[in-house]
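Feature request disguised as a bug report, sorry. It would help if multi-protein outputs had a clear separator. Right now it looks like this:
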Amino acid sequence: MRQISSSQARRYALAAQGLIDGRPSGRVDVRHFRKVVGRVGLIQLDSVNVFSRAHFMPFFSRLGLYDRDALDAWLWRSGEMFEYWGHEASLIPVDQHRLFRWRMDQGLSWKRLTDLEKDHPEYIEDVLKQVSERGPLQTRDLTEPGQRHVDSMWGWSNGKVALEALFARGEVATADRPNFNRIYDMPSRVIAKTHLDAPGLSRDEGQSALLVRAARLMGVATADDLGDYYRIPMPQARPLLQDLVDREELVEVEVEGWEKPGYLHPEATLPRAARGTSLLSPFDNLIWYRPRVERLWDFHYRIEIYVPEPKRVYGYYVLPFLLDGDLVARVDLKTDRKADRLRVRGAFAEPGADRVHVGKALRQELELVATWLGMGDVEVAKNGDLAPFL
């Protein structure tokens, strides 16, 4: 079995994710957005906006300064992307719509939906009819949206449950996301007929295709890593991975320090060195699966949004800092729009990091971030061992 060093594994991962290429020196346009999506495969969405919307950051990490309005226009209104459950709620290239039909066939299964179908058997079909006749629309636009349920998941009303069930089944699609509110419409009015008419794949075929894609996007990864990328359950992923190895679509490898086998995409590239600087969102594709982050960089990382403040170790919204191939620091950020400043609420170096060197590089990155966000100043709190070096 082929053997790979830990350093090579990191370089494979960074190269696959487009974090070794260096940022463009000229004006960033749609071609650059397409290139980023080609490297990461899909963009995770999240509502937290204390620093920046999650979907903006993977592009900044790889491109530097760009126009966020231009990105949103391309993501939501070009017809090149569609929203679906990829890795959580995600924006996915529309030509891959057919790879997710098996998931749409499965739909959702949770108690609120079962109760709604039992108690109001005609309700969901009526909601679909309203979208068809009056869409695009939000939950509040339904004739009977229902009341929020304070004792249920996210407090969803019956109308929201119905729309989300239809969305999961692929019977409605996201038309837009103003202020992160999902607007629903019929797929035929959102997604080009060419993609809707493309033949779907069986569950095994679709999952196999997604596992190969995950391997291409990750460089080298364990079975758990690959399954997590598109949220494919391991009992289903494991036999498919063995079949992909047998068919030579993936190469099984032994990685230094890994207890489990790795899987390498046959076309994975290995750069000689890792260079570059990037702040990474908690929802960046490179680091969203925390066990992989720890395995590759010995970097224990958890998002502490839901941790009570007295129990937080590093802060509310902490971003890892990537410098020349290593995760060398983490920084807790808040965009204070009223005060027109980027607040650094804490900055922490990893053990063994050169704090002078890391501090200088991180300060430059923070100033670039502030410019990108339109903030006039960077304010550093006296919290963390790296803060004095910023």
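(second protein starts here, but nothing in the output says so)
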Amino acid sequence: MKADFKDIEEAYLKIRKSIRNKKKLYLFEKNYYSNCNMLVDKINSGNYTYSNYHIFTIIEKKKRLIMSSTLEDKIVNHVICKKILLPLDKYLIDSNCATRIGKGTSYARKLLDKYLVKIKNKSSTFYILKFDFSKYFYNINHKVLLNKLSKYLNNEDLLLIKDILNTTNNDYINNTITRLGMDTFYKKNTGLPIGNYTSQFLAVFYLNDLDRFIKEELGCKYYIRYMDDGIILDSNKERLKDILRILESIVNREYLLEFNNKTKIYKSTEGFTFLGINYKVKNNKISRRIVSKTRRRLLNKNIKYCFKYEK
């Protein structure tokens, strides 16, 4: 990947809108052209090095870890995402919905509505396999991910991605997580930085081969994935049981991941929840209800910050 001044400026102008610390913006803009050109030179020469993350927690649905980058690191992440990762979007299946242009939760819910109408018109009772991964972002294996990316990227671009992934191997990260009272840690060469712009796409991409296997090899017409949440609709419960056994084996062996205890097969009449909406199909009618946790999040948009710790 080769970057130019326009790439840096475009990334900076996007990031600028969300930066709360105006002092950082002032210091960068004070020597704007030289700072932008310095980033161009470092990226193109392969000499860019990432700074330590500012690590803290927030309370949203629950206590969550955030790893905030420096302004320069954010800019480089945006450039890498735009020039290297986003072009890979064309290889993803349509029903892989999270954090993609033109998709998101609304698209996933509309797609599920479409699938529900189709399957209920064929079968009065059907079944839903919901699978969820255990600590997905923390358990994505760097070697597996880079191997999958190598099908599409050259060695130079792979090294840029590897440099970002390697930032999770620094000891200060787990030390800080301990001080913050969290109980989920990074294993060596495993996990994505929580909050990085590139991490969103890499997490979406990691299971792309699994998505294609489910759709193309297993022939699951009614399948949706939203990051680490997957859902398959089928009229045959035994078929879904077989599919779950197959997926558990592949997920453990090829992706070094595990499904968590939320993974289950539901009957359409008993109802199931997906992306904050509870669905139930009874007497050929689909009922939808926003679950209370989602309703509270919509009503309360202010996120409360917990104790912070900086290296």
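Even a blank line would do. Unrelated, but nice: The chain has a mean pLDDT of 91.
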